[in-house]
Every structure is written in structure tokens, then in C-alpha cells.
């Protein structure tokens, strides 16, 4: 659990409820939660991100489908999460995104795995890689130089999300399997910075 | 149908299929389609946006839930659209977003309807209005001065989308009902430019 130690500055706060619309049992967290069940929450149905940027996960132990959670209100998990094709009934763990940074974020994307083939660099949000001239609907590998980024399957930041952090595995994501265990393909068409 | 006349410049192209993964019957459009059924498509299950930015709609006649579609591949409508809480089985009409502009986009948001209360101005994408200091999870009204914007219910551009265009009703959206007939509340927590 490398993330617990980073959260002592008070920069992160999430409040969760086990019923929709901020009803039912309530609990605040200012650091990572590896398993909501251990805190008596079998289901988190609504939550508020009060400070910082957080990563939510389908399974405990920060596994499964990933959700980038920024400051704001999430009254209904069902309305927010996933897609009709892949139903994620609950969020079972979450942690701060420690390297999210407002000042500078930079990454290089590569056409092929292992940092090979054609490459491009991003410093700004991009709702459509094809519109920017990236000649494919897929990405082979990433090198995140600074900040935290979120890639999405479809244009406009829709579909599965993949968190890419400069402080995780030295920012090097050599294969599809490095950026999300549920990913079956390299389909990735939008990419933006995570800020907090 | 005020949008048909705008699309003669060849800037817009969408190719649709009636089966997932770009299979089945295929048809190209370079202008608005008011009803896919009139063109023999009872269901659009996959599509590619080859140029321009488009708006897709749940119902024919550009009615119902709105979807902003930017350049790229959409192999599976089910995986892309909506949320688990509000299932939209198909896209029945679509049209170009004529005022989407890469150069300048500017809007003013207001706390209350009819352009009243506290206000803020945006020229850049904003994944979380609360993180930017907007003290509420809702917006009361908008004045779009230039470009096209898409607002979303939740942070990170998730949930229902609402298209806001400078060339529609003079860019003035005085009430929740002006930016989407299915909207029940002013819940709106992220906002970004539509570019093409």
C-alpha cells in the first residue's frame, strides 16, 4: 500500500454514504480505503469528493475497473458509473491520486507496445486523439513524464477509464495490461489531465 | 430544420452501421439526419465520425437525450451511451455542431435562472466546476458568447450531456428546460468546449 503515506497533508477528503442521494450510513476518509467492506460499507451508493482527486475501483485492493473522481457530488453511483455494456454495481476501494497537478502534466504516447513506433506528446487535454492527427483509435504504450492523466476508450472521455500516473511504475506503461487489468484492447481515443 | 443548410462545406462526415463493430448495412452522411428510420436504419449500432463534431439524439427530430460525438470510432453504441440508470437503446437522429470552433469559445454561467445571481466566465475546459471554485453543483442559466460547449451532470464529463451552442437561440439558455428536455434538475458539474 504505497499510497497511504502520501495523504497526511489533509489535501484529500471523500465522504461516502451507503444509500443514494447522501442518505444512510456516512463516513469520511482522508486517506486510501483498501476495502469499503472493512469499514462496514458493503455498497457505496453516493459520495462527495470534498478535496483532491481520487481513484475509485470496482474491487477491493484497488483492482478492476477504474474511475477517476474529481471534486463534486455523485448522488447516484448507478447513474455515474460505467456503461450499459459493463455493469459495475459498486465501488469497493479508493485512494488519492497523489501526483495530480495543476501546474504541469506531460506524457508521450506510442503507436506500439514497449515505447515503439510513431509517437506524440501531450501537455493539454484532448477529447479526440483522431481529431488531433493521431492516426489510430488505439495506443500501444505510454510514458508519463509528469502529472496524472486519464485515458478513455471513446472520444469525449467516455467508456472505460485508465489512470496513468507519473509516480506509478516510473510513469512507464509498456503494455495494455499495464493500464488496467480489464482492458482487452488498446482502444483509447481521448486523454486528459487529472487536476485537483 | 435550421441545421441542414450549414453542412454543405464538406466539413462533416459520419458513417453508420446497423450492427456493432462496423458490420451490416452501412451509410454515409455529410449533413443532418432527422430520422434514421427514414433511411432504413431502425437501429444505429456502430459508427465512425470521420470529420467535424456531431450531436446525436435519442429520438428522431433531434429530441431526447443528447450525445456529443467527436472524431473517432464508436464500435458499440451500448458501451458508449448513457448510464446504467437511464438506458438509451439507440440513436435516432444526428446533426453537425456547426459552431464548434477550435479558436475561441467563451461562455458565462449564472447561479440562477434568467441570468441572475453569481456568475462566472469560462474559456477553457473544466472537468470540475466545484474544484474551480463554483460554489454549487448546479447551474441556473448560461450565455454562450462563442463556440459550442457540452455540460455534464457529473465531474469528469460523465452522466447526461447538454449541448450549448452560440448559434442556437442566440446562445441564451435561461432555464434548465432550455438545455435538454430530459433534464430534471440543474445538476451540472463539468463543462468543456466542443472542438473539431
Explain what you see.
Two copies of one chain form a homodimer. With 196 residues, the first copy, chain A, is mainly β. Chain A folds into two domains: 4-96, Gamma-B Crystallin, domain 1 (Sandwich), CATH 2.60.20; 106-194, Crystallins (Gamma-B Crystallin, domain 1, Sandwich). Chain A contains two helices and 14 strands. Chain A has helices spanning 77-80, 129-132; strands at residues 13-19, 23-29, 46-51, 54-59, 63-69, 72-74, 93-96, 106-112, 116-122, 141-146, 148-154, 158-165, 172-173, 190-194. In chain A, the strands form four sheets. In chain A, strands 2-1-3-6 form a four-stranded antiparallel β-sheet, with no helix packed on it. Chain A has a four-stranded antiparallel β-sheet with strand order 9-8-10-13, with no helix packed on it. A three-stranded antiparallel β-sheet of chain A has the order 5-4-7, with no helix packed on it. In chain A, a hairpin with a 3-residue loop joins strand 4 (54-59) and strand 5. The longest helix of chain A is centred in the middle third of the chain and has 4 residues, at 77-80. Chain A is elongated and about 50 Å long. Chain A starts with 12 loop residues before the first strand and ends with a strand. The model of chain A is unreliable at 1-8 (pLDDT under 50). Chains A and B meet through strand 6, helix 1, helix 2, strand 11 and strand 14 of A and strand 6, helix 1, helix 2, strand 11 and strand 14 of B.
